[in-house]
Design goal:
about 110 residues; single chain; Uncharacterised_YqxA; mainly alpha; DUF3679 domain-containing protein
């Protein structure tokens, strides 16, 4: 029994440390994507404040190009349309089943 509890505690600690490391890695990845590689929290807060005040004045030309490309790509997406049709089919089938059950109950 003691071995089992010890193993469970060790497993929980390992998983917890893994989660903490994963969160740190995700944070570093987000900072890398944003282009902010400073490790100091205070400088990143100041930079975010400056970026939000200037963001309304400056529009990144690459961003507008990517936005146009995304709109063109989203014009036809096979998987989203297939998912939508599948969802509509499942919804219709469940609605028929519910109506059938209601009819059976009303007959009783």
């Amino acid at each position: 029994m003691k071995k089992f509890i010890l193993r469970c505690v060790v497993l929980c600690l390992v998983l917890f440390i893994g989660i903490i490391v994963g969160i740190k890695q995700a944070h570093n990845g987000v900072m890398y994507i944003k282009g902010d590689e400073s490790s100091s929290l205070s400088t990143s807060i100041v930079k975010e404040d400056i970026d939000t005040t200037n963001s309304s004045l400056y529009v990144n030309p690459k961003l507008s190009e990517k936005e146009k490309e995304l709109e063109e790509i989203e014009g036809f997406n096979l998987f989203s349309q297939a998912g939508r049709k599948l969802g509509e089919g499942v919804q219709a089938a469940l609605q028929k089943c519910i109506n059938l059950v209601k009819e059976k109950q009303s007959e009783m």
